[in-house]
Amino acid sequence: MGEISIKITISDRIYPLKVNMEEEEIVRRAAKMINERIKEYQENYAVRDKQDLLSMAVLHYATGVLKAENKVQAQDTAVADKVGELDSLLTDFFSK
């Protein structure tokens, strides 16, 4: 599908974006999550500077992405190990 123009507000700043129609909801949800995280940090910590709050939110989400990537990589390794075991068992079975 085509691109559409949208405006996203993050930390009281408006960002005009062009996104694929299929991605619009995801982008809006991401902006909402970022704003909620910023608000949470603002309420729970003595940080008032918007740049610091935004940096803390970015660090939170980047850490989450890296954890998810590590988990997927570990799962891929485990699956590859199991496939190797099955291949070995089948090779042994058919070679008898």
From TrEMBL:
One of the GO BP terms on file: cell division
Which Gene3D superfamilies does the UniProt record give? Cell division protein ZapA protomer, N-terminal domain
**Which keywords are on file for this protein?**
Cell cycle, Cell division
Q: Which domain of life is it from?
A: Bacteria
The protein's matches in InterPro entries, at most eight in alphabetical order, are given as:
Cell_div_ZapA-like, Cell_div_ZapA-like_sf, Cell_div_ZapA_N
Protein's name in the database: Cell division protein ZapA
Q: What is the lineage of its organism?
A: Bacteria, Pseudomonadati, Bacteroidota, Sphingobacteriia, Sphingobacteriales
